[in-house]
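Suppose a colleague, Dr. K., hands you the sequence of a protein chain of 296 amino acids and asks what its three-dimensional shape might be. Before reaching for any lab equipment, you can write down a predicted structure in token form. Begin with the sequence itself:
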Amino acid sequence: MTDKPTVSVLGTGIMGAAMARNLARAGHTVRAWNRSRDKAEPLAADGAHIADTPAEAVRGADVVLTMLYDGPAALDVMRQAAPALRPGIAWVQSTTAGIEAIGELADFAREHDLVFYDAPVLGTRQPAEAGQLLVLAAGPSEGRDVVTPVFDAVGGRTVWTGEDGAAGTATRLKLVANSWVIAATNAAGEALALSKALDVDPQSFFAAIDGGPLDMGYLRVKSAMILNDQLTPAQFAVATAAKDARLIVEAGERHGVRLDGAAASAERLARAAAQGHADEDMAAAYFASFDETSSA
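The predicted structure, expressed as tokens, is then:
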């Protein structure tokens, strides 16, 4: 095993494509697959081999990295890849899958003798493209020398949360972090929507909190995207945020915690998606404050 393992990347959307590109630029042999091949094709310019099927993509790989929409999608794709999976290879599962699904994925790994790493990432398009994601990882220490070069290529830092990927400790931390991100995004949108309704200049709001404990860089960034109509290309899409919000609510329910804010966020994001903003940045949840027929 060299320090540059061959990596199969299954799923080349916003995050997966950036991760595959950084892996190729770091000197890894990359084999990429996406359900819509046109989303994977641009990676050929960076030296990646574009596969027609998941099985073709994983053949000969040392590490399989999945970055798909959700847990069921990841399980479906890995089942398609199963005939070509070599026992003993590492599976870096970076899809935000949720607590229930991560157990099902770990079961698949065990059945096929794969070394399973629960490894979701924190970050959006820009840090992904810069190779500065925060990798949250759980998995056996004896195999980390294989996956560490992969994490180093896609992330600026790796936080290990445990030895057992099947326990989902990394996924649990990701859900907690995403609950804050989604809540903050929706709060920013609602503050701007209320300022519009009350005829308050948003800059007056920013000036009032400037430099104090209520001020935060994230508020400024998401507010600027809304006010300057810079919601595309999405850093983190409305549809994906809605899915993650549902996973957060489900996780709370499974553990006896009522998450009213997360439930409202999930509904709000779903409403924005239904209004036609699904592929825009999740800051576009701002529009859910208005009726579809009204001017936002």
